[in-house]
Predict the structure.
Amino acid sequence: MDLASAICPSISSLSAKMPTKRITVALNTNQSQRAPLLLPLTLSRNPADRESCRALVIKTAQTKLKFRKGSRIFVFRDGRELLQEQDWLDALRDDVILLVSAGEGYVGVRKEPTPEDGPVPSPDCSIHVLAKNALVDSQSIAQIENTVRTLPGLVHACGQPDLHPGSKYPIGAVFVSKRWIHPPLIGGDIGCGMSWYRTTLKRSQVDDDKGKKVGEKLHGLEGPWRSQTEREAWLTEGHESHSAGAEWDESLGTIGAGNHFAEIQVVEQGSSALLENEVILLVHSGSRGYGGDILKRYTSASQDSLHEDDEKAKAYMKEHDRACNWAKCNRDLIALRFLSCLEPGEDAWALGQNKCQVDSDMSIADVKKTLQQRKVVDIWHNNVERTRWPPRSPECIDIQQATSLALSSDAPTIVPGDDTNKPLNILPLPGSRGTPTLILRPRFTASTKFGLDNALSLAHGAGRSMSRANAYLAMTNRWGKAERLTVPTSVLFQRPHAKDGSDIRGGTWVICDEKQLVFEEAPEAYKDVYRVAEDLVRADVAEVLGWCRPRVSYKVRNEGR
C-alpha cells in the first residue's frame, strides 16, 4: 500500500469517517493548477512524521497534479514556508492554499498578515485545565472554549484552579497569543497585582484582640495623597514618568473597591524569603480607574482584538505598560501610607502622612529606595507579558532563536519584563479575608513541559465560588448584619498534610465601611484556597512553602473620599 492509501484510502470515504479540514494544493510555479484536499484532523502536524499533513500534501501534488519532486511547501500570498510543526499549526485553516515546490523559492510577492485581513481564530489552540479538587463550573469552561474559538492568534489556553466566570471572558485563565493582542482578556484593571512588604511589628502586637488596636490606627489612607507635583515625583523612575495625568493620579496610593485589599499577616510557616513569626503587609491593588479608561478607548462592540503591527495596538501597549508601572507605584505608595500608621516613629515613612510637608523630590526618591528594602515580591496578574514560547528547559534556551509571543497572564511564574524567563522564588496565593495566604514556589519540570501546561502562570487567588449578587443575597440571609462579618470568627479550615492533624482557625479584624462589599467579599464567597493549592501541587507546577494568617484586613473607610 502506498503512502496516500495508508493515510487516506479516498477523500470521499475519509470525509464520512473522520473530521477534516478543507484546503487547496497548488503548484508553486503554476499556481493556477490546483487540487482540493480534505485534510484529516487526525494527521500529525509534525512534518518529520511519516503520516503527516506534509506527506499527504506532497502525495496529493504527485497524484492529482502530476508533480514529481515536491520538497518545499509555502502558504499562498504570504509566502511563509512550512518547516516546523508550529508552522503547520499556524497555517492550517479552512480554504488555505498551499503551494508545492520542487526546491525553488516562493513564486510571488510575499504579503504579511495585516489587520485588514481580518482576525482568524486558530483551529489548533490547546486548552489545559489544572482544576481537579477546586470547584469549577461548566460556564467557566464554556467561556474558555468560546474564547479560543473566536479570538485570533491564540495558541494555548490554561484554566487555573481559581477559574470562574467573567461577564464575557473567564477569570483565572491564561491565554498565549501570537501576533494578536486582546485587551478584554486583560480587562479594565491593567497592572493589578500583589506585593508583600516586611514590617517591624511583632506578632504579639497583632495577635488576637491586639489586631483591633492596630486596625484603629489605620486612618488617613483614603483620598488623594498630597499634591500632584509630589504624585508625579512618586511616579518617576529615573528619567521616565509613569504619570497618567492629574485626573487619574488623584487615585494614586488608594486601594480601590472590589476584591482589592491591604492585609496585615503573620507568617505561621515560613520559607527562606519569609521567616516564621514575621509580620508582613500584603497589598492587592491595580491601576484604579486609569486601566478601565484604557480598555474603553481601545475596544468596541465590534473589535476585541488588535494585530500587533497595527498602530492602535502599539498605542495600546504603550498605555498598557504605563498602567502596569502606575499600578506598581500605587502598591508601593499604599504600603508607605500603611507603614506611616504602623511604624509612626520611622522618619522614612513620614511622607505617607498628608499633613507632613516634604517638598524635595530627592526626599521622595530616598523614601522609595528605603521602601524597596522592605519589599519581598511584586507581581502583576492582569497584563500582557512578552515571553519565549514554547518554554524550554533553562539549559536549552537559545535567546537568539527563541520566539517571542504575547502572554495574557494570571499570576506569573517568571520575573515580569525579564527576557530570560528567570523564575520567581515565591508567590502569594491569598484565600479570603478569613483564610490563610499560602506561600508558593513555581516549579518547572519536564512533566509540565517547563511551564507550557500552566502557561508560565499560577492561580492568583482562591477564586470566587459565588457571584457578587449571589454572595450578597446568601450572606445577608445568613449573617443579617454586616458587622458580624468584620470581627474574628472561628471559621474552621482543615490544614492538608499537617503532621499533627491540627486545624487552622480564622481570626481577622476587617475594616470595611461599605456594607454591600462586606457581604460580597465574605470568605464563604470564595473557593477553598487549600483545594486550589492542591491542584497546583498535583499538576507539578508549584509547591507550598508555608502560609500566613491574616490578622487585619483593610478594604475601605468612609473618610477623605
